[in-house]
Each structure stands twice: as structure tokens, then as C-alpha cells.
Amino acid sequence: MLLLVVPFFGGPDDREALAYGMRMAEHPGILLNVIRFVPSPGKSLKFDKSVIEDNVDHEEDELMLSEFKSTHSDKEKESNLYEEMLVENKAEVVDALKALNKYNLFLVGRMVPTVPLVNKTDCPELGPVGSFLASSEFSTTASVLVVQQYNPSANLHPLVEEQAYYGETSSMPDSPHGVPPV
Predict the structure, then answer these.
(1) Angle, to 10 degrees, between the axis of helix 90-98 and the axis of helix 127-134?
(2) How many whole angstroms separate alpha carbon 17 and alpha carbon 20?
(3) pTM for this prediction
(4) pLDDT tier for residue 24 given thresholds of 50, 70 and 90
């Protein structure tokens, strides 16, 4: 049995990770657990800032979670679980994630609305949760899959684009001289 967990903080990338997890959970050999991290009242998951909530994101999060609960959390099939975890600060988030070390696979969103969970990272492209799970501070043999929802208008970290050179053709042959083509 594959034990899969989706730490859910909210936002489009976490919704995408949850959608992927829900698809994987259709297989009978997969146990899916969704842990929703909820800040204490009046706080945000950034912990140092007051609540400035994006209602559209919040509504979409609720819709996605209710879909998960209605389609994947049935009492007969104990393969899918949903939990809410009230967190007061960054240390509680870190402790909660460390307690999830029994899982085989973590599905996490890349750009989640939370503070960075490690002070320094070699892989900022993994996002705050993925960076923590890949760090030496988190001890597990689990795999981590970081998911980012496709947004055609976003250019968060542009890739280096190669410039095509259509000038003169190279004088170098395609195959070495003296070797007949096969």
C-alpha cells in the first residue's frame, strides 16, 4: 500500500496537488490523507501578517476540499482521510510536517501562502514546503512531488531561452570524414 499525503495550505498549487492526489487515490492500493493547515482566528499562514484574505482563492479551496470530502472520504473505504490542523506559528507547522514521516509520498503545492519553513535553501524553486521536505531538517525516506498549476500568463521564474542562430551554416560536417554513413 502506498501512503500518500497532501499538506494543504491553500492556493492554486495546493488545489492542483490535491487534484492529482485524488486522481491517484482512485487506485485501490493508495491511501490518501489530506492535512489542511488552518491558522488561528485572525491570523494568516504567513504568521507575521494580519489576515488579508483572497476570497476567490478561499472559495475555490473550500470547493476543492468539499469535492474531496464528498467523493473520497467514505466510511466503508478507509483509504482516504481528511484532517484539519490548527497552527499558531511556523514551529507548529514544522512539527506537524515532521510527524508525517510515515508516508511514502508527499504531494505539495509550489507557491503556497505560508512563511518559508527553512532559513536557507538550495532549492527555492521547490517552494516553502517542498524546500523543507527536501532539507536535512526533515528526516524521511519519502518522495516529494512539488506541483504548480499551469498559468499561461504567469512568468514567475523565466527560463533561459536559447536564441536560434540562422546565420551561416557551419562548415563542420554532420559525420566524421572518411566514415561512410550507415
Answers:
(1) 50
(2) 5
(3) 0.74
(4) very high
Distance CA 171, CA 173 (A): 6
Residue listed under C-alpha cell 485524488: 22
Tell me how far CA of residue 124 lies from CA of 25, 131, 139, 143, 147, in angstroms. 29, 7, 19, 17, 14
Yes or no: domain 2-145 corresponds to CATH 3.40.30.120: no
How long, in residues, is the chain?
A: 182
Question: Distance (Å, rounded) from C-alpha 10 to C-alpha 113?
Answer: 7
- Mean of per-residue pLDDT scores for the chain: 77
Cα(87)–Cα(63) distance, integer angstroms: 22
- For residue 1, give the amino acid letter: M
Question: In what helix (H) or strand (E) does residue 130 lie, and over which residues does it extend?
Answer: helix 127-134
CB atoms within 10 A of CB 36: 19
Which residue ranges make up each domain of the chain?
2-145
> Using only C-alpha atoms, what is the Rg of the chain?
22
User: At CA 104, angle to CA 101 and CA 109, rounded to 5?
Assistant: 85
Summarize pLDDT for 41-54 with one digit per residue, the tens: 777 666 554 444 55
Higher pLDDT, 76 or 147: 147
